Amino acid sequence: MRHNKKFNHLGRTKAHREAMLANMASSLIMHKRINTTVAKAKELRKFVEPIITTAKNDTTPSRRLAFSYLRDKEAVKELFGTVADKVGDRPGGYTRILRTGLRLGDNASMCFIELVDFNDNITKSASAPKSEGKKRTRRSRRASGATKAAAQEAPATEAPAQAEEPAQE
After folding, report:
1. pTM of the prediction?
2. Residue 34 is assigned to a structural domain of this protein
3. Which residues lie below 8 Å from residue 108, measured CB to CB, with a gap of 6+?
4. Which CATH number is 65's domain given?
5. Is position 141 within any domain?
6. How far apart are CA 26 and CA 34, in angstroms?
7. Is the dihedral of CA 103, 14, 70, 49 positive or negative?
8. Where in this protein does the record put region Disordered (predicted)?
């Protein structure tokens, strides 16, 4: 029975699962955003968020603890450098999971997992003021096509009338 065993084994042995999560966490820290399945992303979130919390306190024991999980010296440098600086005031919730749809081969639900403070597109759009310009209304295609046809016919009929008037005077 599997009473009180809450984490997802992801169909892997313990050593394989730990190695996979360490590699995915290193990739997430280095690239700030990775594409994976939803199940792996949820497990990765549980794995990487305590490491990021540890990185807020830049001491030798916390660096050693992070290295024991990540097993990548460059990822530890990045974690204690740029990542810890950005998330220093955030109390938690360092990652975001954005679902992208289903994978073609096996129909697995896919997603992006990213570090929250590093997505410039979302932070720019949220902080940018809304444009105060003209409000556009929706117009149907038929109406715009009819007005174009009427506009084309009207100058054609007016032009000969104007040309005849000066000739008569």
Report:
1. 0.71
2. yes
3. 37, 38, 102
4. 3.90.1030.10
5. no
6. 10
7. positive
8. 124-169
In one letter, which amino acid is 16?
H
- Measured distance CA(8)–CA(29) in Å, rounded: 22
Residue whose tokens read 């940018």: 128
Rounded to whole angstroms, how far apart are CA atoms 136 and 15? 58
Domain hosting residue 33, numbered range: 14-121
- Domain count within the chain: 1
Give a yes or no: residue 107 inside a domain: yes
> Do the domain assignments include residue 45?
yes
Note down pLDDT in tens along the chain; length 169 residues: 889 988 899 999 999 999 999 999 999 999 999 999 999 999 999 999 999 999 999 999 999 999 999 999 999 999 999 999 999 899 999 999 999 999 999 999 999 999 998 887 766 777 666 555 666 777 767 765 555 555 566 555 555 555 555 555 4
Structure tokens at 109: 């639900």
